[in-house]
Each structure stands twice: as C-alpha cells, then as structure tokens.
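User: Modeling request: complex.
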Amino acid sequence: METVGFLLDGIFTSLQWFNLALLIFGCLIGLFVGAMPGLGSVNGVAILIPITFIIPPTAAIIFLAAVYYGAMYGGAISSVMLGIPGASTAVATVFDGRPLAVKGEAMTALTAAAVGSFVGGTVSVILFTLFAPPLAEVALRFNAPETFALMVMAFATFVGLGGDDVPKTIFSILIGLALSTIGLDLITGKPRLIFFNIPGFLHGINFLVLAIGIYGIGEMLWTLEETKGKVQMSKLSVNMNEVGRAFGALKKTIMAMNIGSFLGFFVGILPAAGATPASLMSYGITKQLSKNSKEFGSGVPAGVVAPECANNSASTGSMLPMLTLGIPGSPTTAILLGGMILWGLTPGPLLFTQEPEFVWGLIGSLYIANFFTLVLNIALIPAFLMVLRIPFAILAPVIFVLCVTGGYAPTQSLHDVWLMLLFGFAGYILRKLDYPVAPAVLSIVLGPLAEKALRQSLILSDGSMGIFFDVSEKPIAAVIMYIAIVLLIMPAFGPLYRRFFKKKQTA
Amino acid sequence: MSITNKITVKRAEIAVAVILALCSIALMIKSAENRITWNAEENMGAGFLPFYLSLGMLICTTLTIIKFVLKRSPQSKDDTPFIDAVAFKFIAVTIISLVVLVLAIGYLGIYFSLIFFLAFYLRYFSEKSFAFITIFAITTPILTFLFFEWMLKIPLPQGISEPLFYPVYDFMYGGFSFAVKMIFIILTVVLPTALVFLTTRFIK
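Assistant: Request completed. Predicted assembly structure:
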C-alpha cells in the first residue's frame, strides 16, 4: 500500500508544470534523436547531460529519462523508413519493419512499433514499481564488500555475456578503470598519472568527457563513414485509415508483446545487456515460437512488435539496478548514474529513503512519458519524416557544436575538450577493430565508486582479500563474487562447448 | 595503390595493438612514481591500482597480439582496406576541422570560431546555397550564446573577442525591463531561427 502512495506522489511530481514541460520536451528530443540514423538514447543523454546542471535533479532525471524513452520509440522510425536502424536498439526492428515499408505498409509497421513500445514500456514500469522497493530494502544491508562484489559482477557480465572478443572487452574495462584513477588519490591525497605535468589532469577525467567523446564525436565519425552523408528514404502515404487497419493487425501480436515485455525487462536488468540484445533475443524467440515463423523477415507486424516491446521494456529494466544497487544496467544508465553523482546524489538504495521525491518522481514520470510518447509518436510521424530528410552534412556539425560546448561546460576547461576529441577519435578507431566501447564508459563511471568500496573493504579486513570470498562472514558478497568468477571464465568454455555440441550433432 | 588501400584491417589491428601495449607500459611506468605495493600495515599505495590495471591492459593487448600472430582473430585474416577512400576524405576533413576549431576557440573565442567552422563544414560537405550557409553559420553561435551565457549562466571561452561582448553583458545584466529583453530575444533568436527554417524549405 505504501508503494501506491509513493507512486501517486511520484506521478503528481512529474505532472507539475515544469517537470511535465521538460518531460514532453524530453520525449520529443528522444524521438528525434532515436529517429536520426546513428544517434541513439546513449548519444542523446551523453550530449544533453551538461545542460541539466542548472535544473533540480528530479527535473533533470525526468528530462533525461524521457529522452531515453523517446529514443526507444524513435529508433523504429528510421529502421522502417530508411532501413537503417535509428539506434542499435532498433536493429531487430529492421528485419520485419523494412519489408513492411517496401510492401507499402509503412504505416502499419510504424503503428505496430509505437503500440509495441507502449505495451513494453507499460508492463516494464509496472514490474519496476513492484520490484524496486523490495530490492532497495535488501540492498540497504549492503556494505562496501557487497558493493564492490556487485561492481565486479557488472564488469564480469560484459566478459561473460557481452559476446565480444574477450581480451578486447577486458582491455576496455581496464582502460576505463585506469582513466578513472587519474587525479588526486582520495585516501593518500597524492596526485596520480599527471601526464606531462599538465594541471588539467589534477581534477581527474570527468566521465562525461569520455562519454561525449565516444558517443558524440566517435559515433558521428562512424555514421559519417557508414552513410557518407547520404540516406535513401522510402515513400510513405499517411492516412488515418491505415492507422486503424494497423491496430487491427495488432490482435495477432499478443504473444510477441508478452515475450518482448517480460524478456526485455529481465534482460535489461543485467548490467552488460541493455536494450540491444534484449530486442534481438525477443525477436529470435518470438520467431521460434510463432506458428508462422517462416513469414518472419518478409514483413509481419509481430516481428516489429517483439523487438520494440523489448527495447522499451529493457530500458526501464536497466534503471532498476541503477536506482536500487547503484549499478547501471546499460550504457545509457551508466551515464545517468554519472549524472546523479554530478547532481550531488549518491546512487544506491539510500535514494529511496533519502530522496523519495527523486526516485518516485522518476518512476511516476515513466508512466506519464509512456503515454505522451505514444501520442506524440503517432501524431508526429509526418514531422519526423521531414526531419529525416535533413542532410547529415547539416546535422553533423550541429552535433559537433553540442559536443564541444557540452565537453567544455562542466569543468570550463579547454583541456577537457581536447581530451574529448582524442577519446572520440580513439573510440572510433577501436570500435572499427571490434573493441567494445561501452565497458569503458561503464567502468569510468563505476571506477571511483569501485575503488572506494575496495579500499574500505580492505581497511575493514586489515588488507585481506578474503573478505570477498568468505561465505560464513560475508555470504552475499561471496556469492556475488563467485557468480562473477563464473561469468569471467565462461567464455573459456565456449569453444569446448561448441566442439562437444558439434560432435554430438554429427554423431 | 592509394594510401587507403595500403592500410588494411590486418595492418591496422596489429598497429593499434602495439600502440596500446606501448601505452600500457607507459602507464605502468607513470604509476610507479607512487608507491605500488600493498600490505596489511601500510594498506594500498597510491600507485597500486593504476599500476596493476595497466599491467592487465598490457596482458590483454599481448593476448590480442598473440591471437593475431596465430591468426585466431577475424581481423588477422582481413586484407580489405581499413577505410575506403571516400569515407577517408569525410573522416580526415572532419577531424582536421575539429582540431582547428578547438585551436581557434583558445584564441578567437568559441563564437567566432563556430562561425568559421560551420561555414567551412557546410560549404565543403553540403550542397546548400551561400545564403543558407551564412544564415546558419551566424544563428547557431547566437543561439549557443543565449543558451549558455544567458539561460545557463555558463561563460564559454571568448579569447581575444571578449571585449566585443561587454556591451551584450551590459544589456543582459543591466536594468532593462523584461519587455525590452523579450523584444531583444525575439529579434536575435526567434527571427533568425524562423529564417533558417524558411531557408531550409525554400533556398536550396
């Protein structure tokens, strides 16, 4: 019952005119950012975070969550119309959304995507409301060793479930952590890694510099290379009869909605996963379970609904560990978590007791944002199609301007802008060679928190690492640590498993 | 054979791995300026974590190099160009113009540098008319100025152009009535934005 009261408070908080205006504005920006090929929620949130410093944290998180949400809806627009995913989260939407558009049923695909997103978003936010308070209560009992173990597990998930080259993934995690150690050491007060005695390094490397570098500059370079500044759009005739027909077609997609919503939510909770794998998995499973699985890929609405449901659901799911444990569930939530630190909040379960307005305002806003994004999305489809016609050669410099000003604003030093350019270029090259970049962003955000938790634990245990592995003394920390170890060594068994499996198949 | 054909994915992979390995070694040496030991009495030295993290990085890059030598990674067998010639032009011009932009920000200040950056970039990559580019290159810095300096109260670097902004600051923080300021905003923000929108529709 208490939860209902908090939730109502949260909904009222997000309905205050200032918050509501930011929410609608955020949804619009999110839809736009999602719809632009090459830009996704993570890029939008990274580039926009510097401008949230002047508004209260509750308003800021409502705004950014709306951007996150809107981008999940918007990604479908370019997947369907251009055949290029608007964001990595909408890759699976291309499989059936594009064929539908080619058949001349683009409006069906877009409506299916919007309704799918709405259902996924609604189911997941209800699950979120049910799960968050009890999880936060459990997490309140966590001390430094448990926190550190959780962070190790978050890193291990990338290695175990990320699916990328293992040495390259670990390298990415380690370089993020190493970058986070630059600056003054909190415990001894000594300066660390001050390259060439440049004073700019004394205040450390702000995670935003890396995030904007990689997701702003790096992503733009990547998209410039992919599209060479040009895109092709399919034709769309917008009439409201088609919207009605599309709603009729949705009756057959209830199974896809169920799979997408529930699977998406739970995949979203996992630190490494986020919305991209959630949408791909949900597409795959829906296809396998469907009676007419052979039609998938030739343009069936269920093939659009499943991934769209899942990516919205996963984006809400990934906020669950961010709020309750202080561990982000996706690259975007990693940046939101960093933002919370910049706004002066301490991420983790204490938020529920110390900042109820912030937490419940965010949860309440998800309900409201879901509704507004659905309405805005369907109503503004013609407007977004106009936006998609903006040539990339005009959009790119505008994004660069936002990156440069956004990189400068938090610390007001050109040093950070140079670093941002460097990270952007390095991120672009590394990404081309299959080094995953998301783990680096996650670890530069979690680095200082992990270091603090590690050193506090070691002070507690008089310098013994045993504190993390002793089941009788710290059972939770130990269990999490062992799970992390299993995840870390899992990729080593991949080839063995495949060999065994192949033998069985041939036998 | 052009330069972009010579840089294959294979060559890029090994070059990057070696550079990253060298960077890891440099980081280890740099970390060792602080105490890198850890024991129960003294707890952790300030250099301990960065040292072992960069050691880990070195191990990872060494593994990447070993995988390359044993031809176990997909990149080690890939003889296609790392980047094609058309894309290379896009990327190179973008990066150079960004570097020049940041260099210019330190000297000219951000607002004037942005005008030149936008004008150059649009002229080079888009097929827009001279009129469109001019309006676009001038309104974007004005919007940036109003957004950061007026709304967010965050001063952006102005370099040698700073004295030019004194009258604007006098106006912003002077005793003008709200109505006058609003008229000013309409003249400097709404009109130019509308102009840009109109020009995108009617001027090619």
